């Protein structure tokens, strides 16, 4: 039986990379003595998979991991046993049994939502008075948003418009806060930095440092753009 | 969120920021306001190396069991962070609290290898603590070092306040109590150091004076400045391994450490008496843990860490009295849950091959032999109790069991080594390859066998029978490697053989430090100031800078490394009583020169001196 575990990665845990996080969870699952299933073969490993990796420096309140169990554990139990084995900055928020036909979280992701702010309120972008109007021109009124995306194989032209499902901008205490819903997963994985960079260029701030942004992933979704469903809404507590 | 010593901006531009944030599972958190003593325990190398060290794990756990002490960890910042810390004047901090260690009571460092000496200076420099003990003030931390290199602490005598000689479990409680008393009474550094010098195993370099002979610049005298300071320092030894402090939890690093597994120490010391091996001498006598304690510790540690591998720590695992029982337990009770056992330092025989075939994939793994020398004469010189029959026999058994990869470790530049001894190395490898083709029928072979020869260069170490031996110049080491390489190409089975050798510049420097005296201190300081650190890492090692520092300070490499010492010379470490007597070492040196083998401690006591401690193999029935 497969369990979907939702967790948060916040605070200082932002400096721990994806591979290191996976190793942390392998040991945490082992310590929590959940009846996890191992793969067959000479070097058995836990059957465990993670949804889209989170880059170093980003935080998230919507991360997912699927694990296979040999026998059932009450969801409240599983949740608390895992939480006893977390560190500051990692917290388990749900433990749900998946239906048999559920797609693995690793391949299921089609979209992700983010909140993006500026680390430093002295950032040039915080001083653009009509930034909200510019955003409307950049996104709401645009038919296409063409950028050049650098890939491993070189550069390619890309139209961002159909891959940005939501681009809201709110000004709180004079500082812009972005609320984004972007195409994610294996085919068109759009990073929030890429979108903000394109916007920065549009508003005339071409010198862009993606480390100036504070990015938090809020959730991950599966399904088609018009009928997205949160990975955390699939399955039931037992 | 917990505060960090480094800003986000710095953490995002350096390699592996998770090295510097602490927060590891099982790390200890205390409120600094609740303790009397703050201790920064440091391994002067990069995080991944330091986090793998068992000694630190033992001391960290032991010190933190005390309510009055908060022990935190520090590792050497990698050069990328080093530069930023210097540039922005950020003081070095401890991982747990992220507080600057210059405000701590103690900075403790373990010295596992000589090449970390400049890293000691890096730690002090980044901590913003004076590099020289003479310049430290009352409110500076007490800098204390321990570990195997502390058996000759003289090359770093100017930099450290205290040296702990021997096993940390023994005298630390006394030292901390003394410190507390002095702190309460209004701390006076000089008075504390003087009082500390009377604790068994504690050496205070600044309280001793050395004079040198004009004729040959060897030591004329070495004595304490004051009458009440002991002239001889006794190495501290744990008598009962079962009751001695061992952690039930170990820290789980985020960044993958060198040892990503539970380490279970099964015994200390070694019965074998290889003449080149410092560990085999300075950890005498051999003391075993009981198998029941080990079973308990193994279970606890696996449960508290979630590691999927357990490794036995020992200088020679095969000699542990109940290895069979322990292995059965580990395989039956732990393997079923996806846990692996790794078994370093095993002698290859039917028993160990059987165990290995149960715990690892025969097709992927290789069999390791450390004959250390190619010819039987040379193996007798070094007292490696291993015959060619043992080696070929073991390899043949392994080939029958399905292995076809063999790794062989040797040393070059051993005392009295001739070209013939070196040529014996590839010939031995060739014979092993031949044994494969004789043993395994053609139709069962998975291609060729692979025999890998690795050689490192021998460095004479204090408290070994070879402590008087000369070394060679760097070029001579390369010539020796070439002799091996040429001979390898002449072997019938050369296509099955592969040869790797280590570089030699570092070897010479290691040799200088290993047997150095306090006259080296200014050169080490200059080398550090000129940018030498992380010398143990090939990429950063700059021999020319070292040569310049030696020249400036009139240090002759010849004197420290290449010279044959007289058996009666006063050696810089003679003031330490390691419990292995000089008479025994001399006897062993003479036996070496006559290629005479000395039996191991279980066969026969050879009266090395360690019997005086009253524990372990010397007192058990043979
Ligand atoms: S006293 Fe004898 S048995 Fe004990 S360590 Fe020395 S040689 Fe071995």
UniProtKB/TrEMBL annotation, chain A:
Classification via NCBIfam families: sam_1_link_chp
Domain DUF2344: 2-192
Domain of life where this protein originates: Bacteria
Protein name: DUF2344 domain-containing protein
InterPro entries: DUF2344
UniProtKB/TrEMBL annotation, chain B:
SMART domains the UniProt entry points to: Elp3
Any Pfam family the entry gives: Radical_SAM_N2
NCBIfam families named in the record: rSAM_fuse_unch
Signal sequence extent: none
Single GO term (MF): iron-sulfur cluster binding
Segments forming domain Radical SAM core: 256-495
Domain of life, source organism: Bacteria
Protein name: TIGR03960 family B12-binding radical SAM protein
SUPFAM superfamilies: Radical SAM enzymes
